[in-house]
Q: What sequence folds into this?
């Protein structure tokens, strides 16, 4: 029996409460995974990430391949040791960043040739190589290597790309082999076309994965298109496996996706926004650069159990951010991760108490309006 | 009786062990004060600054006047409240920054007219205004407003400037008046001219201050010139008052100055170096950007009781700093402050045990060579 498993504990109006058990600790779902791009959740100590309630983080294969290179992470004993992270780590496969960041030279049946966005160095990534890199990083949850077409692409191109990703998914599964304490997730593609999404998921289920992700979203489509893509697959996603919506999103996006049975999320929004002066709160977003906060001695959100949220005045934060002080990025990022984890905790509580519909109604419109 | 006081506890080969008692906590001397320029010790949480062993920090009147402005700090209830600092705060008077950073329009008997280095806004700072600003910031140790001439200036100019600073020192004392829980320090000027230094200090003692600082150093003179300036006054510095060497310095500078009876130090070196990839350790300086550290799994300095010093590999730190990750600045700054406070702790221990000469000999040449 595998030492990593998923248990579905409750359902409430489509939302699922679950628990992933791993040798590195448990993950209560729905879960939000802070993004630790290049071996660091930017501007945070890893202990803070954990103490905010995070139980898993995400690492980026693409970024780590480029800097510092997989060898140096391997030499340190894997990504957990390298970055002092005691939590489980999910790694993406590099597929998305190859598309969004690098200069792609060519995509063949075999893999993708691309140049680093940092120094132009050439890499060739195949499904097998992506899995090997993720195993070298000692990732707990490995993602298949897929091609992520742009949002605007036409249906036949999306279909062609999806078929390639499916063939790659099979190769990934084969390369991954049997792993006692690691999972391999398949990724559905198919853009915003419900029939393609369904077809892709069914074929992935035939191959057989430990969890199923929706990829190729959060790339420019609007919220209702994104929800439609989730709706297309929600009834055929295996109930006994985790469902992961990649790269999503705003608090209201997460609420809407949880309602559609999604268990796992990752997004750079809370960390990236923290570095630009944007804070998420239960009363909506706060652009701390705004001059009105110079006169505001209240903290960002008293209700959140985090010093960054409840112990520093907006007057002070406004000063730090407008003066480009590093502490401004540190405090806002910390607060944003604390808010996201507070949101997930309250979502889980609502599902547990069979009150998710009520919770959703109370917050979805509010977040969608003011955000 | 004042609620802030100094007690000399021991002397060992010229070095002094003391304790400053304040309503906000005690300060063991010799003490190093991390610099919190604009209401933040850059890249550190204030709790970390304290847990490293810091017992007092320095705030910059000039920077705070410019951003966020004194009114906003006052509105927050003073600088301690504004930045969540429970430790005592010493504020400099703005004199040094006016000279080194701003564009000075004119210096008159009354004060200095200058333009902000950030936005060109005009300010006029007089001795009285500087004291008022420091009182508004709720500083625990207030510094007199002085003129800081450049290192290269000729003796007659230094003398003229020193006389102006002495007249300003009298005005500062008058403006400061009687304060139950605050101190006012005088600042000796006189450049690297021993006779001027002596004359200045004697006149300051005639006016009468709670402590005596050496200003106008660490502005380009070499180490032996700096020590000569301290030597010039060391025998006439009042034994029952704290002696503060402003803006110094490297670990070896601190060692040499402690040997000459100095009790208090401040310097941006540990924090600024932390942001450029330079770490201070008991084995000398480490430029963490150096490629050799990519293969080094050891931490910066196992002997220092700080996670930044003993729990992150040089391989990881090299990656963070070379990738311009904020966490690189955070960890190196944290480590450097921990090292500086470890140095001060060991200096105090050596004085306590009457072994300062031994300690000095063991470390001074080593620091001076490799640093």
A:
């Amino acid at each position: 029996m595998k030492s990593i498993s998923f248990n579905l504990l409750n359902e409430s109006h489509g939302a699922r409460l679950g628990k992933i058990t791993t040798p590195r600790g448990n993950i209560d779902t729905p879960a939000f995974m802070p993004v630790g791009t290049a071996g660091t959740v930017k501007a945070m100590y890893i202990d803070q990430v954990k103490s905010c309630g995070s139980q898993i983080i995400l690492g980026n294969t693409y970024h780590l391949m480029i800097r510092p290179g997989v060898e140096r992470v391997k030499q340190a004993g894997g990504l957990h040791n390298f970055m002092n992270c005691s939590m489980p780590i999910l790694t993406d496969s590099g597929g998305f960043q190859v598309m969004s960041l690098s200069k792609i030279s060519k995509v063949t049946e075999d893999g993708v040739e691309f140049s680093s966005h940092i120094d132009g160095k050439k890499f060739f990534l195949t499904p097998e190589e992506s899995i090997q890199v993720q195993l070298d990083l000692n990732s707990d949850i490995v993602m298949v290597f897929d091609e992520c077409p742009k949002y605007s692409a036409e249906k036949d191109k999306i279909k062609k790309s999806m078929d390639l990703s499916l063939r790659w998914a099979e190769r990934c599964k084969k390369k991954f082999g049997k792993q006692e304490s690691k999972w391999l997730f398949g990724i559905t593609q198919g853009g915003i076309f419900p029939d393609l999404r369904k077809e892709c998921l069914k074929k992935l289920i035939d191959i057989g994965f430990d969890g199923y992700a929706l990829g190729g979203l959060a790339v420019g489509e609007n919220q209702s298109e994104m929800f439609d893509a989730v709706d297309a697959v929600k009834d055929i996603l295996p109930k006994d496996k985790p469902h992961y919506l990649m790269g999503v999103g705003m608090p209201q996006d997460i609420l809407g996706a949880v309602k559609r049975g999604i268990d796992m999320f990752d997004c750079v929004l809370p960390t990236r926004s923290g570095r630009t002066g944007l804070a998420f709160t239960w009363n909506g977003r706060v652009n701390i650069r705004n001059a009105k906060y110079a006169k505001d001695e209240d903290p960002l959100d008293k209700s959140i159990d985090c010093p960054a949220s409840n112990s520093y005045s907006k007057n002070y934060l406004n000063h730090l951010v407008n003066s480009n002080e590093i502490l401004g990025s540190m405090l806002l990022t910390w607060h944003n991760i604390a808010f996201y984890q507070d949101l997930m905790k309250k979502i889980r509580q609502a599902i547990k108490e069979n009150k998710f519909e009520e919770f959703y109604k109370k917050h979805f419109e509010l977040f969608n309006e003011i955000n």
Summary: Chain B touches chain A at residues 38-40, 42-45, 67-68, 72, 75-76, 82-84, 275, 294-295, 297, 311-313, 315-316, 318-320, 322-323, 325-327, 329-330 (CB under 8 Å). The CA atoms of residues 137 and 146 of chain B lie 19 Å apart.
